[in-house]
Design a protein that fits this description.
little secondary structure, about 0% strand, AB_hydrolase_fold
Length: about 40
Amino acid sequence: MLQFAPVADGEFLLKHPTTMLQQEGSLSPVPVMVGVTRDELE
């Protein structure tokens, strides 16, 4: 199983995403659609 951990590189992600979510006004309000497929890695 692959795991994903975001990395704040100072260019694309200025701060860790958890920190950005906790600070008001640091993220733009854009719609997001997230999902998975049952047989994606088979």
